[in-house]
Structures are given as C-alpha cells and as structure tokens.
Amino acid sequence: MQNIIEINHLFYRYEKDTVLEDITLSVPEGSFLAIVGPNGSGKSTLLKLILGLLKLQKGNISLFGQEISKFKEWHKIGYVSQKANSFNTGFPATVFEVVASGLTKKLGLFTFFKKEDTDTVLTALEAVGMQEFRNRNIGELSGGQQQRVFIARALVSEPKVLILDEPTVGVDAENVDAFYEMLGDLNKHQGITLLLVTHDIGTVSDKVTHVACLNKHLHFHGGTKEFEASRGEGLSAFYGHNVHLLTHHHKHGGVLQ
Length: 257
Hints:
Blueprint lengths: L2 E12 L2 E12 L3 E5 L6 H8 L7 E6 L2 E2 L9 E4 L14 H6 L3 H4 L7 H13 L15 H13 L5 E5 L7 H18 L2 E5 L3 H6 L3 E6 L1 E7 H6 L3 H7 L5 E2 L8 E2 L1
Parallel strand pairs: 3-8, 3-9, 6-7, 7-8
Antiparallel strand pairs: 1-2, 1-4, 4-5, 9-10, 11-12
Helix pairs in contact: 4-5
C-alpha cells in the first residue's frame, strides 16, 4: 500500500522555540489518521508544513512519492480548517456557490462552468448529506451544517486525501457523532484518505485506523488497537501531563484535556 504522506526526521522552530523535534510518520493510502495532542503541541504547525504553507527547515516531507518542494498536484489534497471561529455568517452566497468555488483549484479561475461541474458539486453535497440545502444561504445554516458544506467544498476537486483541523469546532455536541459518522463513510465507502487533528477521543476508537500522539515529539504512532491499550496512565505519559477524559452526550465520546 502506497504512503500518501511520508515525513522523515522533521524539525521546526519559531525563533528560539522548537515546536517539532525529529518527527517521522507515514500516512498509508486509504487510512484514517487522527493526530491528538495538547494545545501548543505542534499539531497545526505540522499541518501547515504538510500543506506547504510553511517552509521546511530540517527534515523531509513527500506527498504521493514526490518531495514536497517538487509537488504540483495540490488538487489531490483537500483541506478544511477551523472555520467556525472566523467564518462571516453574513457572507452572501448559497451552499451551491460555496462548494462550487472549490473547483477553481482544479479548473482555474476563468474556466467556463459545465454541466458535469454542476453534477460534481451536487455529488459532493450528497456525500456530506447537504444536497437538499444547495439553494440555502450559507449563513442560515448551523455550525455543523456549515462545516459539512466546507468539507463538500474540499471534496469537489476530488482529492485523494482530506486534511481536517479540529473540524468539530462550532458543532453542537449532539451532532458531533453524526459528523464523525459522515467522515467514517467518506473513508470507508469512497476510499478517501483522512488526516484529522482532534481533541475528541471518541473518533479514535470508533472511526480511525491509526493514531499519532504529538507533543513536540511523536510519543505514539500506530494502530487504533495499540492506542486503546495505551489509554489512561500511558496516554498521560504521551502528553507529558495528566489526561482527563470528559464524556460527551454522543456514543463513545470524550475530550482530551
């Protein structure tokens, strides 16, 4: 099985502060990797390096078997950020228009919109359960619905891998489990490789195939069963401090604190 992402001996620092130290991990095609760790552990920095938003300082990253400095096929990688804290709910655009804007990365800015492009948008909306909302203004939706739309926007360019940074920020607790169920379906039934940064332990045991525990160093990287066996005192050791499990209302839920 091909590794879509390969990271070898990665270091990164901001001025005098080292935030990532000797990180080596891989993301196999078809896998669902959760990256967990406390605030300030380097998770967002790692994502920015994978996405080419930060320049490598030391170490190597390969995407689809190619060094990141030479990689050009960015439409193969979809990205969904923590939208809820910054999105302008008054933005005058329909759900369909927001998702369609994701095609510019693949088609270009001034490409004529064809019928098959409309079908691609509707297919992406259907994949996240939002097709019936296609004519609704994006600002009229709940936080969870908006996040599904932004995932559809990332899916519309038909990426091979989808990277999500804390995607349940702004999603009501009672809808979190359904949200993760949707991500699991994308992984299992559509074969999309997923890389998820999260504080929610519920995703780990229910949906993901691999887990990486990050706190400047990579304290754990392996399968879900291995991670389950390491919860409790072992997990606290990975994090470098005591870890408490707070239960959500949804099944198998929990939040790392």
